Structures are given as structure tokens and as C-alpha cells.
Amino acid sequence: MPRNFCRLPSGFGVVKVCVSGAADTGYCGLDAFDKAKEVGREIAKQGGIITTGATTGFPLYAAMGAKDERGFSIGFSPASTEREHVETYKLPIEYMDIIVYTGFGYVGRDLLLIRSSDAVVIGCGRIGTLNEFSIAFEDRRPLGILEGSWDTDELLAHFLKSAHRPNDKIIFDSDPKALVERLIEMVMKDKKETNPVYNNHDVWSSTGKDADVIL
């Protein structure tokens, strides 16, 4: 079991990092599998939890990588039940410790997925990935755009330039390890500045009652 399993060594709480990407990676290039798995590994190595849309392709590869390091994986399904998830949506249940059956279809699932995550990694993707990007952008979640042999990163860079909407919480990087490190650092900074949590040696709370240390 990793020493820092689901706990950042120098921080408080657990950072949940969403990995967004194409369910069909046939358009992504040869390095999609390896890069997705590396993203998942790095999330687990750094004590975070990986969240995905409980789907196939890029997010599933990332979940596989997280499980390689005995990380914890949460999937948000568009289905309302496990049977609907498997039989109707044809989605996997492997490599996920918990699946939240939202029952809201893909659009509603995307909203709950992003709202339940502290940061988002955008890999190779299509329309669904762009929807998750837009939600994270509007919610000002820290966003990491993974550069690769695909063109998603280039399209997003063009979109951001054309949108004229400054956002200092978006980073681009081709190195999965560096990308995850930078995202978690950004999340921890945000937590300390906008959502303080106190350590009273028994529980983590937001009230500070009987707390000795303010993190």
C-alpha cells in the first residue's frame, strides 16, 4: 500500500483529480494509452484520488494507471443503475472502486463529475471532453491540458486565444508527471486561500473548533 494513499503528505484532505478524454481513442494517436496511464499513476503516487466518467478509452486507461499504483478510483456514470451502465450504455465497471450512478445521462454526469473534482486533466478528446472542459472553465477549476500526438490541446489553445477570457488556472504540459504536480500545487494553494480546513487531531473540519493547527 502506498505510504501516501489518498492523503497528500504535506497538505490536508484528499485532492480529487478528474481525467477527461475520448471514450474512443482511435483518433488519439499511438501514445494516448501510455500517457493516460502515466497521468493515473502520478495522481495515485501523489496521494490523490482519480475521478472519471466511468467510461472507456482515455479515462479508463488513466484509471488503470492509478490502480497500478494502488490508487483509489471513482467513476461517475450517466446511468441510474449498474445494469443500465453495463447493458444500455455499454460501459465498464473495471478499475473503479466506487461508481456513482447519477441517472442524468452524459450531460448531467459531466456536471456532477466536474463539480466533484478539485482539478481536471484534459487529454485527447472530442465533444464530450470539450463539454467537461467548458464546465471546468466556467467553474474556474484548475485545468491541465495534456499535450500529445492528438490535436485537442491545439484546438483548446486556439479556442482560449479567441475567447478573450483570461484564466490563470489553465496550464499546458506534455509531461504527465509535471502536469499533475502543477495541478495539485494549484489546488492546495486555492484550498489554503479560499477554503481553510483545520486540524484538531481527531477530524478534519472547516470550523476550527478545538483546533491547534490552522493549515
Question: Explain this structure to me?
Answer:
The strands form two sheets. The protein has a seven-stranded parallel beta sheet, with helices on both faces. A three-stranded antiparallel beta sheet has the order 9-8-10, with no helix packed on it. The longest helix is centred in the last third of the chain and has 19 residues, at 176-194. It is globular and about 45 Å long. It has one domain (16-214): Rossmann fold, CATH 3.40.50.450. With 215 residues, it is an alpha/beta fold. Helix content is 40%, strand content 17%. The protein starts with 15 loop residues before the first strand and ends with a strand. The protein has seven helices and ten strands. Helix 1 (32-45) packs across helix 2 (57-68) and helix 1 crosses helix 7 (176-194).
